[in-house]
């Protein structure tokens, strides 16, 4: 059942499916809550920094530079610098850059801030496509991060450890639902399982449920071939590795 959601006080109402409305509300609430390695205040700060990065003049100059090392962006602190780089120039992240960031933050914190940056980028791109203002990032909630690393996380050749489907047991049971195939892009945030779950909520609402990714008959308002055509074009424009 579609919901009626206004863009702002002066814009006409536009119809959004209920699952999108619920997913966006869930992710915004998720961002403000204490996470696994960051508290609510730090998570909200990361989300707001991810939004500010789009208008960052230094990031624009770096993106236009032949080498990302050719521009001194002078961001304040390793977290802000990492968020801006992930948000504005992800295609040129290097292993050396990653290793430097992880030495400062820890790989678990890095995964959490990647997730928050990606969530803001996705929500903001959706709002921009609708001609709507970006959703306000809510104020943080109090509490401490859980600091729980999943026991099944292990190196598998990626930069970050991941939880294999067969290792998704105990607290991680159901992490990937009943998907017969779990792409690495779905597993990428699994070192911080709550972020992987939040990503699934967005993927299910914006694309197709993970369990139906291998199903060529899966559809939404568009059929699967049309969905993949749009996805491939957007990925090419965004210089996505996949």
What do these coordinates show?
The protein has 242 residues and is mostly helical. It is built from nine helices and four strands; from the N terminus they run ββααααααββααα. The strands form two sheets. Strands 1-2 form a two-stranded antiparallel ribbon. Strands 3-4 form a two-stranded antiparallel sheet. It is globular. The two termini are 33 Å apart.
Structure keywords:
about 240 residues, mainly alpha, two-stranded antiparallel sheet, two-stranded antiparallel ribbon, 9 helices, about 5% strand, globular
Summarize it.
The protein is mainly alpha-helical. It has nine helices and four strands.
Write the layout of secondary structure elements.
Elements: E1 2-6, E2 13-17, H1 18-32, H2 40-52, H3 57-64, H4 78-88, H5 95-105, H6 107-130, E3 153-154, E4 162-163, H7 184-187, H8 193-206, H9 224-237
Antiparallel strand pairs: 1-2, 3-4
């Amino acid at each position: 059942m579609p919901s009626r959601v206004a863009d702002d006080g002066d814009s006409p109402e536009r119809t959004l499916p209920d699952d999108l409305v619920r997913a966006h509300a869930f992710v915004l609430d998720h961002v403000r809550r204490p996470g696994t390695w960051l508290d609510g205040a730090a998570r909200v700060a990361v989300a707001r920094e991810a939004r500010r990065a789009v208008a960052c003049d230094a990031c624009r100059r770096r993106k236009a530079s032949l080498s990302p090392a050719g521009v001194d962006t002078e961001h304040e602190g390793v977290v802000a610098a990492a968020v801006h780089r992930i948000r504005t120039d992800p295609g040129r992240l290097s292993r050396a850059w990653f290793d430097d960031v992880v030495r400062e933050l820890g790989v678990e914190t890095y995964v959490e801030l990647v997730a928050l940056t990606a969530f803001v980028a996705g929500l903001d791109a959706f709002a921009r496509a609708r001609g709507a203002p970006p959703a306000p990032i809510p104020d943080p909630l109090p509490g401490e991060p859980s600091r729980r690393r999943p026991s099944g996380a292990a190196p598998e050749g990626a930069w970050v450890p991941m939880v294999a489907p067969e290792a998704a047991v105990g607290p991680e049971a159901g992490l990937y639902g009943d998907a017969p195939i779990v792409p690495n892009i779905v597993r990428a945030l699994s070192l911080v399982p709550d972020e992987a779950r939040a990503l699934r909520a967005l993927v299910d609402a914006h694309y197709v449920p993970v369990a139906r990714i291998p199903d060529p008959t899966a559809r939404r308002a568009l059929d699967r071939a049309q969905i993949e055509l749009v996805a491939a074009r957007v990925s090419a424009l965004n210089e996505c590795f996949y």
